[in-house]
Each structure stands twice: as C-alpha cells, then as structure tokens.
C-alpha cells in the first residue's frame, strides 16, 4: 500500500486538474467556490484522509451490516464536509454527485499510473470502499438533522454571508486606489469612492452603485476618457493589459494615469466581467520631468547645460553630412561688475545676457551656459547666413538694451563658425574656430566695456544692476 500512498502524495496536481475537469464539464462549478485555492484544499484534505486510513489499517475497509459509520475515523472527513456543504445550502443530491466525480478522479489516477493489474484492482477497491463509507456516513449525518436545525443552520450561514459582504464592501470602499468593476454587459457593478472622486464631479456616497441596482450606468458614461481602450480590451483575448494615458478629471484637471484592465474569471474560466484599476502617475511624472529638466538645464539661467551640450554633440556627430553652426559668447566685464558691485549684480548681468541669447536663436537651436560667463549655441542643419543673422540679432538687442536701460550696461563678445559634419572630430573643431573668433573680439571689447561701465558707475553708483 506504500506505493498507493506515494502515488497520491506525488499526484496532487493531477488530482486537482482532473476534478476541475469533471466539475466544469458537468457544471458543478456553478455552485462551488470560484477560487482555485478552495479546490486545492478539498483535494489535499481528501488525500490526507485517504492516506491516513491506509496507514491506520492496511485492510480494505468493508461495509458491515451493524457498523456505525458516523463514529468511524475513516468517515470524519466526509462528515465534516457534509456539514459545511449543507450549511451553504447545497442539496444532498448535488453533493453526492460531485463526490462521485472526486471518487472517479482517484480511480483515474490509479488506472493511469499503475500497470500491474492486481495492484490496480486492490487500489481501486480500497478507494471505492473509502468513498462508500464516507458517502454512507454523510448521508446519515445529512438526514439525521431536523428541519428546524437545517433552517437554523441556513439562517446562521446567511448572517455570515451578509457579514462577509459588508466586510468586502468596507474594504473595497477603503482602498485608496480607484477600482471599477464592470459586468459582461458593460454595466458598472461597483465603483469605489476613490474612483468616483477621480472620475466624476457629482460624487455618490460609498456603496451607492452597489445597492442602487436601477442606477447602474454603462461603461461609456462612467469611463469616457478610456472607453475605447476598455472596449478594445474586452473584444481581445488577453487576460490583462496595462496602458498609460492622460485623462481629464472634472475635479483635478489633466492627470497622467496607468490603467490596468483585468478579466474576472471564475474557476471554470467563464468571463465574469472586467476589473479596472487606476494609478495616478501625475505627481511622479511631474517629479521625473523636473529631475530630467534639472539634469539638462542650468538652474540659474534655465538654459541648457554642458551635459546636454555634450550629449547633443554626440547625437549630431552621427548625422554625417549635416551642417552645424556654432556661436560662442562670453560676457565682457563680469569681474569688474562683481568687484565693484558684488556678486548679486554679476548674477543680474548673467541673467540679462541669458535672456537676450534665448530670443536670438531659432527654436531648434540649443543655447547652453557652459561656464560662469560662457555661453554656446549649437545650431543644427544651418547655413552661414542664418548663423550670422543670429549674431547680428545678439548685437542689436544688446545695443537696444544699453540705450533703454542705462543702469544695466551689457557687452558680449561673440564668435561664430559653420561646418559640415563628416566625422566625430568635426563639431569640436567648429567650436574651437568659434571660440578663437570670440576671444579675438573679447580683446577689443575689454577696454570698451571698462569705459562704459565706469561711465555708468560714475553716474548711477551702486544703483547699477539694482
């Protein structure tokens, strides 16, 4: 009998699969648990009871005429299961029918696994007698109860079901993540308070949709923002799907949402509806965008920084044959401003220059602050005339600024160069050419700005850049 014990112990997956097969094709799943774990527990309990009986007495259990089946250890599992199913409102006929298929499951295991005919007969007889004794025991247990006792059991079970339902509703409504349940007809079966708050302007009270049967709405009116995606999921064959979408919330405005669709399936695999879980990613997206912006921008001027410039140089270097323009800029006299007026005035000067540079280039050009008073504009797909126009625009804006803002004298040295990208070394070489021109201009601008600054300083004093 040890071989039978070992076979049962090592074949729990087969037994589970086989009983579910019988339960599905004969429609027992309609009145049984929808969770696979409950079926696992029943197979495990039944196997443990059978193995325990074999280990306790190797003799085949027979059906003696005066035997008290209810008090036998071999029938304990059957009596307990009978009580549980009776309390759930299952009829004796229904329970007996399902038990017959449990019996068949274990017989199938023996017939599929044991090749020795004598062992087949022995093991099959053992299993049959085990189930015979249990069936007799729970039939007697089932029928011994009075109608009053059965009614009392059902009333108790109904109260427990109501308590379980209330617990489910409390948990469902307390979940801070929006959750929506739709049935197979696209009606909203339930929607928790978090989902109502996220999706609708007129909030219902918790549990309203669940109890208000006549007020159930179709999916199109509940989730208009992602109704098309919901329809596509329902028409498809996937068990679950996740999408990301921007949705307009009546209360909260535009929100970035992770939407998870999942089919609700019972143990028989029937489609019971769809559960939708919403995860608001707006704040996380905003933080990510802010961090991304910070990683590629100079926080003081909001221009691109050196890291972004180096990344773009690598990218543009891969576009062989494209023309690139470089404008190199350096603020004149920043040290004089800092020394005479302090770094606050120097900071004001840097920001003034940065704003002028922002407005002097095309939208696709990358204007970067690469040092304290150094700036560089990277201009892709461009000709020399366009680069020259941008430089002229810088000089023109500085001239207009100095004429209109006497207390904020500005001077910027500018160098430009244009070239075609044929190798990874070309853009650094173009930058070097622009720098050389800029430094040549800076030598000439140095004295001119000194004169301009001290002229204004003499007239306005500490009010410069203030």
Question: Could you explain how this protein is built, in words?
Answer:
The chain has 466 residues and is α+β, with helices and mostly antiparallel strands. The protein has three domains: 2-145, Globin-like (Orthogonal Bundle), CATH 1.10.490.10; 176-285, PAS domain (Beta-Lactamase, 2-Layer Sandwich), CATH 3.30.450; 297-463, Alpha-Beta Plaits. It is 57% helix and 15% strand. Strands 2-1-5-4-3 form a five-stranded antiparallel beta sheet, sandwiched between helices. A four-stranded antiparallel beta sheet has the order 7-8-6-9, with helices on both faces. A hairpin with a 3-residue loop joins strand 3 and strand 4. Helix 4 (76-87) packs across helix 6 (117-144), helix 5 runs antiparallel to helix 6 (117-144) and helix 14 (334-341) packs antiparallel against helix 15 (343-358). The longest helix is centred in the C-terminal third of the chain and has 35 residues, at 426-460. It starts with a helix and ends in a 6-residue tail after the last helix. The model has no long low-confidence stretch (mean pLDDT 86).
Largest sheet: 5 strands, antiparallel
Radius of gyration: 41 Å
- Spans of at least 5 consecutive residues whose pLDDT stays below 50 are none
CATH class of the largest domain: Alpha Beta
Q: What is the approximate shape? A: elongated
Let me know the average pLDDT.
Answer: 86
What CATH calls the topology of the largest domain is: Alpha-Beta Plaits
Q: What structural class do you assign from the helix and strand content? A: alpha+beta
CATH H-level name of the largest domain... which superfamily?
A: Reverse transcriptase/Diguanylate cyclase domain
Give the N-terminus to C-terminus distance in angstroms: 99 Å
H/E element order? HHHHHHHEEHHHHEEEHHEHHEEHEH
Per DSSP, the total helix count is 17
């Amino acid at each position: 009998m040890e071989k039978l014990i070992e076979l049962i112990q090592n074949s729990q997956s087969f037994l589970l699969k086989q009983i579910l097969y019988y339960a599905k094709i004969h429609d027992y799943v309609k009145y049984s648990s929808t969770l696979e774990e409950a079926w696992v527990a029943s197979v495990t309990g039944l196997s443990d009871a059978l193995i325990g009986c074999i280990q306790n007495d190797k003799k085949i259990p027979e059906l003696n005429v005066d035997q008290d089946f209810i008090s036998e250890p071999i029938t304990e599992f059957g009596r307990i299961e009978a009580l549980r199913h009776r309390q759930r409102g299952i009829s004796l006929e229904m329970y007996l029918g399902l038990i017959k298929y449990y019996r068949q499951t274990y017989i199938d295991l023996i017939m599929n696994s044991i090749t020795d005919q004598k062992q087949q007969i022995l093991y099959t007889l053992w299993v049959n007698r085990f189930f015979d004794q249990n069936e007799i025991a729970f039939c007697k247990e089932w029928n011994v109860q009075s109608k009053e006792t059965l009614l009392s059991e059902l009333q108790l079970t109904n109260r427990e079901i109501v308590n379980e339902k209330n617990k489910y509703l409390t948990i469902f409504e307390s979940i801070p993540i929006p959750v929506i349940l739709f049935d197979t007809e696209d009606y909203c079966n339930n929607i928790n308070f978090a989902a109502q708050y996220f999706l609708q302007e007129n909030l219902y009270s918790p549990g309203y949709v669940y109890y208000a049967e006549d007020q159930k709405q179709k999916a199109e009116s509940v989730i208009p923002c992602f109704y098309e995606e919901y329809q596509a999921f329902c028409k498809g064959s996937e068990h679950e799907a996740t999408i990301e979408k921007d949705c307009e919330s009546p209360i909260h405005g535009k929100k970035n949402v992770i939407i998870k669709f999942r089919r609700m399936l019972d143990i028989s695999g029937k489609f019971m509806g769809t559960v939708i879980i919403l995860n608001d990613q707006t704040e996380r997206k905003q933080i990510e965008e802010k961090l991304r912006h910070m990683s590629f921008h100079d926080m003081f001027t909001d221009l691109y920084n050196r890291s972004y410039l180096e990344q773009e140089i690598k990218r543009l270097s891969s576009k062989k044959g494209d023309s690139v323009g470089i404008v190199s800029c350096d603020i004149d006299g920043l040290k004089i401003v800092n020394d005479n007026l302090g770094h606050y005035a120097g900071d004001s000067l840097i920001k003034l220059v940065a704003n002028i540079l922002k407005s002097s280039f095309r939208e696709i050009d990358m204007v970067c602050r690469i040092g304290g008073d150094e700036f560089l504009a990277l201009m892709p797909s461009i000709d020399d005339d366009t680069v020259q126009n941008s430089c002229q625009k810088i000089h023109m804006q500085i001239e207009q600024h100095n004429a209109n803002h006497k207390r904020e004298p500005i001077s910027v040295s500018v160098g430009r160069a244009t070239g075609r990208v044929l190798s990874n070394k070309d853009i650094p070489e173009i930058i070097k050419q622009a720098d050389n021109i800029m430094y040549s201009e800076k030598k000439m601008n140095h004295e001119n700005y000194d004169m301009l600054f001290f002229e204004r300083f003499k007239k306005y004093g500490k009010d410069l850049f203030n």
